[in-house]
Design brief:
Bound molecules: pantoate
Number of helices: 11
CATH topology of the largest domain: Rossmann fold
Number of strands: 9
Number of domains: 2
Shape: globular
Order of helices and strands: EHEHEHHEHHHHEHEHHEEE
Distance between the termini: 33 Å
CATH superfamily of the largest domain: HUPs
Strand content: 15-25%
Strand order of the largest sheet: 1-4-3-2-5-6
Radius of gyration: 19 Å
CATH class of the largest domain: Alpha Beta
Length: 282
């Protein structure tokens, strides 16, 4: 695996590979890698000839400076995991390379900015749009791989690719879960054993709501059930939404459809977790 933090160097490598007709698969990450990330790398390994990963903790997508400071960073372990799991090129840029002191462009994704995550994390998706656009322009991948766990991010990135004519396919990779259902996330590293057990409530709430809805019961019954689960529980529910996967708008009627996805977010202590599940599927 070649590791570089230089735009010129990575572009020279990619130009060379592309001139040989090789397809580039790209997995952008913020590090603190877990099996969920490795499933993105293995999907890229299957589809592309050259696998490029990036690790960059992007400051502009953190609306909470404390969260940025506490975001787990394990660069040596990450490098060794990527090396063993089929990454060919690791792009590891500095803040200076990515922003050079500039931070003047912002993105507005319309309603997608205001719903769910957007409501609780002002500016987050603008930062994601900015960094992902920069990374796409640097790496020029044929395929880019993103996890279903960050469903709203995925929807926003698909919009970005379509509207800005990025010449690449966005590939969605299913959520990886811990044995009791907790969705894998870099933030799980900040939970102790007891908190990890408590965090299973997010998965359990999705399963309960899914079971209510697939029986044909109402959206308000599912909402009530989820609220009741969080009462007297250590976890704090921020939102539970039943939405369509294309526009993320809430579904109240006609929810028994294949695009219906249940989304949840909340806190265990000061660690914020999100999860989602299709009504029919994972
Ligand atoms: O999903 C993430 O890890 C980040 O939001 C991403 C896409 C790497 C952009 O910083």
């Amino acid at each position: 695996m070649v590791t570089t933090g230089s735009i010129a160097e990575i572009q020279a490598l990619i130009t060379q590979f592309k001139s040989e007709g090789k397809k580039i698969g790209f997995v952008p990450t913020m590090g603190a890698l877990h099996e969920g990330h490795l499933s993105l790398v293995s999907a890229a390994r299957e589809k592309a000839d050259i696998v490029v990963c990036s690790i960059y903790v992007n400051p502009t997508q953190f609306n909470n400076q404390d969260d940025l400071k506490k975001y787990p960073r394990n660069i040596d372990t990450d490098k060794s995991l990527l090396g063993k799991n089929g990454c060919d090129i690791l792009f590891l840029p500095s803040d200076e390379v990515m922003y050079a002191g500039r931070n003047t462009i912002s993105f507005d994704f319309g309603d997608l900015n205001k719903l769910m995550e957007g409501r609780y994390r002002p500016g987050h998706f603008s930062g994601v749009g900015l960094i992902v656009s920069k990374l796409f322009n640097i790496v020029l991948p044929n395929y880019a791989f993103f996890g279903q766990k960050d469903l709203q991010q995925l929807t926003i990135i698909k919009k970005l690719v379509e509207e800005l004519f990025f010449n690449l396919d966005v590939i969605t990779v299913p959520i990886k879960r811990e044995p009791h259902g907790l969705a894998m996330s870099s933030r799980n590293e900040r939970l102790n054993q007891k908190e990890r057990e408590e965090a299973n409530i997010f998965y359990n709430a999705l399963i309960e709501a899914k079971s209510i809805l697939t029986k044909g019961e109402s959206v308000s019954e599912a909402n009530e059930k989820v609220k009741a689960l969080f009462e007297d529980h250590k976890a704090q529910l921020e939102y539970f939404e039943i939405v369509s996967d294309h526009d993320l708008l809430p579904k109240t009627k006609n929810y028994l459809e294949p695009d219906t996805v249940l989304c949840i977010a909340g806190f265990i202590g000061d660690v914020r977790l999100i999860d989602n599940m299709y009504l029919y599927g994972n």
